Structures are given as structure tokens and as C-alpha cells.
Amino acid sequence: MVTYYERRLPHWHPPGQDIFITWRLHGSLPAQVRLPTQADSSGRAFVNYDRTLDEARTGPLWLKDARVAGAILCALRDAQRRNLFALCSYDVMANHVHVLLAPSAPLEQITQQIKGASAREANLILGRTGEPFWQKESFDHWVRNPGEWQKIRSYIEGNPVAAGLVARPEDWPWSSASNPI
């Protein structure tokens, strides 16, 4: 049975399907940037959204701090150890995170676990209290076929290259291309 819920965006999770998830820091995009929707089947809206995040021109850039990026990786490892999912691919950018995973728990539980644990640790590192760390809602897309799975994995691991941060995916220290979990 397909799990479905809505906030600002619709969230579909067919059983047995891998999921591509992107979440970002609270306040990392200007208000006028349109969020991608499930209705945009071409993926162009998501790519534009992601490129705006990659430019990192507005909002906080806390994930550039190696201690904070490390806290994200710890949260991913911990959630995987709890058998919430099998992690296929990831990258941690300056203001957002991409993951491709095979869920074995409800998507809401997975994102709550990762975002909650990483926000607590990051806020301790940064000495922040009483303010949101992550944007409440994440963007997710269920993978339809093996070709799309490979395309998403390449997109995730190539994101630091596309953003102009490194020459090769394996040069980015906060990615499954260089640091598999």
C-alpha cells in the first residue's frame, strides 16, 4: 500500500521503492524561490531549486563547518544502524543534503530521526538555541526504475562538481563518492 501525506508538498512512498530526499537549512532560500512540486515530472524545477541552493548566496551555510557536516554523517550512520534504511548515496553541501536510500521505515520517521539528531548536535556545536536548524519540509521523489536510480546517484555524487566546489566527485569529503557509510 502506498503511503501518502501532504504538507506544502505531496509525499508518496510506494513500498519497496528507493527514495531520493533533499532537505535544507532553515532560511537558506529567498522567499520568492518556488519549491518543486510532484507535478513537474521533467525535474527542471528541482534542478533550478538545487542550483539556487548550490550557489549558497543567501541564508546560513553551517554545513560548511566540518564539525557540523560530521554531525550529519553521524546521524545518517546512526539511523542506518537502527535499520531505518540502507543508504545508497549522499552528499552534504553548504546549506542542503541529498540522500538516496532504500527505506525500511516510514519516510516521516526517517527524516525526523536524521534531521532531529543532526540539528541537536549542530546547534550544540554552533552554540545556537531556540531557533530552527532545518527547514520543516523535505523534498522527496520515489525512484521509478534502475535507470532513474543510477541517474539520481550520479546527480548526488556529481553535485559538488556541478556546484564548482571540486573537480571530481571523489574529492568532496562529505559525499558517498569519497566517504561511503
Architecture overview:
The protein is α+β, with helices and mostly antiparallel strands and 181 residues long. The chain has one domain (3-171): Alpha-Beta Plaits, CATH 3.30.70.1290. Helices cover 36% and strands 19% of the residues. The protein is globular, with a radius of gyration of 15 Å. The two termini are 30 Å apart.
Blueprint of the fold:
Elements: E1 3-6, E2 10-13, E3 19-24, H1 44-55, H2 66-81, E4 85-92, E5 96-103, H3 107-126, E6 139-142, H4 146-162
Antiparallel strand pairs: 1-2, 3-5, 3-6, 4-5
Keywords:
single chain; 181 residues; alpha+beta; Alpha-Beta Plaits; 4-stranded antiparallel sheet; two-stranded antiparallel ribbon; 4 helices; 6 strands; 19% strand; globular
Could you state the CATH homologous superfamily? Answer: Transposase IS200-like
**CATH hierarchy class name:** Alpha Beta
| Mean pLDDT metric | 86
Can you tell me the overall shape?
globular
N- and C-termini, Cα separation: 30 Å
CATH topology (level 3) name: Alpha-Beta Plaits
Largest sheet: 4 strands, antiparallel
- Work out the helix count: 4
As laid out across the biggest beta sheet, the strand order is: 4-5-3-6
Number of domains: 1
Percentage of residues in strands = 15-25%
